[in-house]
Amino acid sequence: MASSSAFNLFLLSIAFFSLSCLSASLASSTKSQPFILPIKKDPSTNLFYTSLGIGTPRQNFNLVIDVAGENLWYDCDKNYNSSSYIPINCNTKTCPFIGCTGCNGPYKPGCTNNTCPANTFNTFAEYLFGGGLGEDFIYISQEKITGLLTACVETDSFSSFNPLTGLPKGTKGIIGLANSQLALPTQLASSNNLPPKFSLCLPSSNNLGFTNLVVKDVSKFVFQTTPLIVNPVATGPVSEEGVASKEYFIDVKSVKIDGHVLNLKPSLLSIDNKGNGGTKISTTTPFTELESTVYKTFIRDFFKKASDRRLKKVASVEPFEACFDSNTIGNSWPTIDLVLQGGVQWTIHGANSIIIAKKNVACLAFVDGGTEPRMSFVKASIVIGGYQLQDNLLEFDLASSKLSFSSSLLLQNETCSHS
Ligand SMILES: *[C@@H]1O[C@H](CO)[C@@H](O)[C@H](O)[C@H]1NC(C)=O
Ligand SMILES: *[C@@H]1O[C@H](CO)[C@@H](O)[C@H](O)[C@H]1NC(C)=O
Ligand SMILES: *[C@@H]1O[C@H](CO)[C@@H](O)[C@H](O)[C@H]1NC(C)=O
């Protein structure tokens, strides 16, 4: 908001969450049709975004999809002045956070007094930005929805830092799909009296994917199911004592390349008492990142299996290390399996692991994630990224804490294109 740099919060460490009273305030909508948003992939950042309408007059916003994002936030720049915007008053039951934000004016969305604060987090920006919580019309597939809470941030008010840093050109915020009260799937499920469950089908570059924010019917695709794990330690940029992470973790028990189990210390794959380790799903990580120790073993074994298959190694192409002469691949490429809790396997085939990095060079689309966390206090060992998720249908069932996944839809002669 315009008033001050006080909203330039970096790694705040206060516990200010109390979300229990939020759902009562949501207006209920009578329709219960699916809320489907189209998804496109931005070729220059490899991030995914959707488009929805907000406010009066309706303005369309391209918003980046972030499964770790806790709310929907958008850019209330100086030209934006929706007449249907209602700021949420601080110190009311609807406001899940402690404190109030204010602004010197003139009044507009993003510049209001006595407003409930809301964080606008972007993993690519170096800071956590403060915005205001508000309510306005949201348009999803031509349907006008009322009563949804979103965060609005006046980006013009931050002189040297921009909350939109690193996001694709033309995108104006983030739609968060995390396991949190302010995420749209949670709000929509609550206002429609449905259990929170959403699906996500990220497109490859020449495809149009979708997310269905409220899923009721069983899909026609073949699924496997694994529990969603709760990391008991907050994994966002705010350290909150005793508050669990709202991100989606799954329990990878082992990793296989061509059926051979990688020799990884089991402690690396589980979540320790500080919240480090484990495997999470991230749509803002373009390529799966493996913590350095895991990565070294993974790459060494991949090279070995590639050599068994007589793939010809060529010079690396940043940020990828394992690169091969694409003419030597044919139909032969090592298969990667994530062995999950419940005995199921997430198989990653070539379509989700080969990237043509330049002419005649095919690389393994996994990267070294280093040892240090980014914009967080904790670090996951495996971060499953967008390239490995695309053309895989995922269903996140928050009521029963389960993730259903299809593995590559291409094997079922399908893609994420929504018909
Ligand atoms: C925004 O619109 C309101 C009326 O809806 C008006 O009072 C206010 O001055 C406008 N703000 C700006 C910055 O134009
Ligand atoms: C907020 O309150 C201050 C102090 O009363 C006032 O100067 C300012 O104009 C108000 N801001 C808005 C957006 O109304
Ligand atoms: C997919 O299509 C191919 C070629 O058209 C066919 O041979 C194969 O049986 C199909 N697979 C499935 C699962 O439908």
Automatic annotation (TrEMBL):
Task: Write down the PROSITE patterns for this protein, in alphabetical order.
Answer: PEPTIDASE_A1 (PS51767)
Q: Name one GO molecular function term.
A: aspartic-type endopeptidase activity
Compartments annotated for it: namely: Secreted, Extracellular space
* Domain Peptidase A1 residues, every copy: 48-406
InterPro entries given in the database record: Aspartic_peptidase_A1 (IPR001461), PEPTIDASE_A1 (IPR033121), Peptidase_aspartic_dom_sf (IPR021109), TAXi_C (IPR032799), TAXi_N (IPR032861)
GO terms in the biological process aspect are: proteolysis
| Keyword set, alphabetical order | Secreted, Signal
- Name of this chain's protein: Peptidase A1 domain-containing protein
Q: Which organism is it from?
A: Lupinus angustifolius
